[in-house]
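hiii, so i know i said id send this last week but things got crazy w the move. better late than never?? heres the sequnce for the chain we talked about at the cafe, plus the structure i predicted for it. fair warning i was half asleep when i ran it
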Amino acid sequence: MRMDGKYNARDYLAGQMTRAQSLRLRRLSDEAYQPGQYAGDLTFAEAAQRIQALEAEIVLADSF
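okay and structure toks below
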């Protein structure tokens, strides 16, 4: 993860979700009544996929 004494942000973000993603995922999982969608050990990409899926589900539910 270190390159020439500096942290590589891309490698770091690929390894774990950000705090903003964590907060957003928790809020969306509560809003969609799916608390199992939140997990604290997700990668950046996994969190992004779950956020996108929950947002789509919420939009669909609001359309009825």
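btw Helices lie at 9-15, 19-31, 44-62. thought thatd interest u
miss u guys!!
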